[in-house]
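Q: Structure tokens for this one, please.
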Amino acid sequence: DQILTMFGRFIGVGYVFYLLVSIPLVRDLEAVAASWWTPVALVLFFGPGLALGAASFGRRGQRALRPLASACAVVYLLGLLTWPLGWTGETLPDGKAAWFSLFPALASLGAAVSMRPRWAFLHLAVAISGAQLVNHYLRDAGDRSPLAADIVYSFGFSLIFVAASITASRTGFLLDRTRESTYAQAASSAAVQARTVERRRFDGLIHDNVMSTLLAASRGPMDQRLVDQADVALAELDTLRRDALPSADFEVQDV
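A: Here is the predicted structure, written as tokens:
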């Protein structure tokens, strides 16, 4: 939970940073997109990340961290799917890029801390491929670089952060599981020790009181000392049955 909270804050701050950086690019992309697309895309691409960051700073939002982290990953892909619907077919000059192509790895960090590793790596590959594909056809033909090279470079650069996030998340999971196992082993050891102590107590009672009383009775005639010894043995047995230690101090004669 602590690792998830830390990554929630990191991802949330990252979305704030990219929102500020993307403002000039948002204006550029409006020229080649339908009027409805930009407000819808801003909500889809930035909404879950900003909500994740806000939830990570509040105690009541802890339960929503994992779903919001998953939403960052899923909704980013949904945002990519809306681009063909809102694109007018025009291109951007001077090799400019789509603003949402700046942070596909940030969305993949949400997958890294909320999904299995194979799904996080798959998300990173799909998100980067989709974002670079949009950039490739959004630029003029003369400004286009090799698509495969762009995808490989972006994937290799982003893979470091996603892999580190997966490692941190798995480490937290292993630590939690190890701690639970340690607590279970400690409880089991304490139970074994308690049973051992009780068994020794019972064995001591049988040997020191019951057996000695029966042995004394078999060797000689009944006398008051034997009766007193039998009374002590019966009292000890009653104490053992009630599972309570004597509350009074021992007298010298009892000792």
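A few notes: The mean pLDDT is 87. The chain has seven helices and no strands.
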